[in-house]
Specification:
Layout (H helix, E strand, L loop, with lengths): L2 E7 L13 H14 L4 E6 L3 H5 L11 H15 L4 E6 L2 E3 L4 H5 L4 E5 L14 E5 L5 E5 L2 E8 L2 H13 L5 H13 L4 E3 L9 E2 L13 E2 L2 E2 L17 E3 L2 E3 L5 E2 L1 E3 L9 H12 L4 H10 L3 H4 L6
Parallel strand pairs: 1-2, 1-3, 5-9, 10-15
Antiparallel strand pairs: 3-8, 4-16, 5-8, 6-7, 11-12, 13-14
């Protein structure tokens, strides 16, 4: 089995963003994944080498939407190199253990949960899980999927997401295509590895943050809808380490931590401010885990600068 992990450090085609500002984040993302997956081949796509990759495309043109672009590149790579398991991760992730759920399952698409809010367009709408807890209580929980932490075992399923995205393009882009495939189209099997979340033993994406969107954790405290703060300590401050594994406050093992703070569209000063704010989210035990166990020392040992 050919196993590949694909990382991206691409910036918009227009806007004058210096991609080097992602270097420390990308190093942490890649080094943490390598720590637990020495058996995976890694492709790291940057502004500098993107043309080399895209010049060899056979099936699609280059689109100016970065999310869709990533999926197209993933598809082209799967076919070119006969890849039968491809894990796609962004530069704003930290891998915290071996991703067994991605490795052991072979469903067409292995997806992960977005923030617990409901999204939709005229073409799709994210459903709810009706989940019965051990005490018998039934609760509703969002089945909204996030496109940035995902595993593909079938290039045809990935192609279907791309084609749905292009056909029904909205501001959700490839995330819309993914949710449409999973909940409306259903032409391929999509397994959600950390859902339904109330019963899940793991977290692979947004849910470990314990909030409903970006800019809701500032200086380690919750903001209801952004500033001003309501003063409640963020759930991320209650992460804990047990047996060399990182857990949320509700005892789910964090396999991938995903910042998800819209870093890619910020000016340089806002980017620096947002990344340094991320440093305030965690207690020292968690920072030590990221630094010493996930090989992210360059990122967490000192304030972030470019």
């Amino acid at each position: 089995m050919k196993k590949v992990a694909l990382f991206f450090q691409l910036t918009p085609f227009e806007g004058g963003i210096n991609s080097s500002r992602y270097n420390k984040l990308s190093k942490c993302a890649i080094d943490s994944f390598k720590k637990f997956h020495p058996d995976f081949e890694i492709h790291y796509v940057t502004d500098e080498n993107f043309t080399k990759y895209s010049s060899e495309w056979k099936y699609y043109d280059v689109y100016d939407h970065l999310g869709l672009l990533r999926y197209i590149l993933a598809y082209e790579l799967m076919l070119k190199y006969n890849i039968n398991k491809l894990i796609l991760l962004g530069s704003d992730t930290i891998t915290c253990d071996r991703l067994d759920e991605f490795i052991d399952y072979n469903d067409d698409v292995l997806a992960t949960l977005n923030y617990p809010n409901q999204d939709g367009t005229e073409f799709w709408e994210t459903p709810y899980y009706n989940t019965q807890l051990p005490n018998g209580k039934v609760i509703q929980d969002s089945a909204n999927l996030n496109a940035d932490v995902i595993c593909f075992n079938n290039p045809a399923a990935l192609k279907r997401i791309i084609d749905l995205t292009i056909k029904h393009f909205t501001h959700f882009a490839e995330q819309g295509g993914l949710n449409e495939l999973a909940w409306v189209d259903k032409s391929f099997n999509v397994k959600v590895v950390d859902g339904p979340y109330p019963l899940s033993k793991v977290s692979y994406n947004a849910r470990s943050k314990g909030v409903y969107g970006t800019e809701m954790i500032i200086n380690g405290k919750l903001a209801k809808y952004g500033p001003p703060l309501d003063g409640t300590p963020s759930p991320t401050l209650s992460f804990y380490v047990k047996d060399n594994k990182l857990f949320t406050q509700d005892h789910k093992q964090i396999k991938v931590f995903h910042y998800i703070e819209g870093l890619g569209v910020q000016d340089e000063n806002t980017f620096i401010s947002k990344v340094n704010n991320i440093h305030t989210w965690f207690n020292q035990e968690t920072k030590d885990f990221f630094t010493n166990y996930c090989n992210c020392s360059d990122f967490f040992l000192k304030p972030f600068t470019i």
